Amino acid sequence: MIIGVISDTHGLLRPEAVAALRGSELILHAGDIGAKSIIPALRKVAPVVAIRGNVDEHESWARKFPATNVAEAASFSFYMLHDVKKLDLNPGAAGFAAVIFGHSHKPEFSFKDGVLFFNPGSAGPRRFRLPVSVGKITVRDGKLEPEIVMLG
User: Considering Cα of 71, then 142, then 102, then 111, what sign does the dihedral take?
Assistant: First the structure.
């Protein structure tokens, strides 16, 4: 199973991001959606679980998206929040296999105490000199295999 991970689109869904997410069976959007057209466009690729980010806070269309969410896929639980600095639980103790986040625009992943912390970076407008990217998590042999996919 392939899970696509995207964040910080800020109203821009690049064709390269859509192409990179093709083949995903689920897409997780970690906030700062930026425009109401983004999630319906992603749903043409795969089912989407999304949260709102700080950019979305005052948008009426974004109120339907929670600030945090839990996604289930291939018997794994994924905890989603936009800013990992606001994490207020122990994900491993709570039974989560991964924490999916965005906000910093910096793509990164690491395993801490057996939990994957995954930020796909920003797929929207380029910020400073940071790359434009999305992520993929492949579930294989009962393990999560994270990957950052650089765009353009």
Answer: positive
Residue type (1 letter), 123? A
**Could you tell me the CA-to-CA distances from 118 to 129, 146, 150 in Å, in that order?**
20, 8, 15
Residues contacting 35, CB < 8 A, separation 6+: 9, 11, 12
Burial of 143 from C-beta contacts in 10 A (0-12 / 13-18 / 19+): exposed
Reported as a single tens digit per residue, the pLDDT across 19-32 is 999 999 999 999 99
What domains lie within the chain, and their CATH numbers? 2-150 (3.60.21.10)
Residue type, 49: V
**Tokens 């992520």, residue located:** 135
DSSP at 131: P
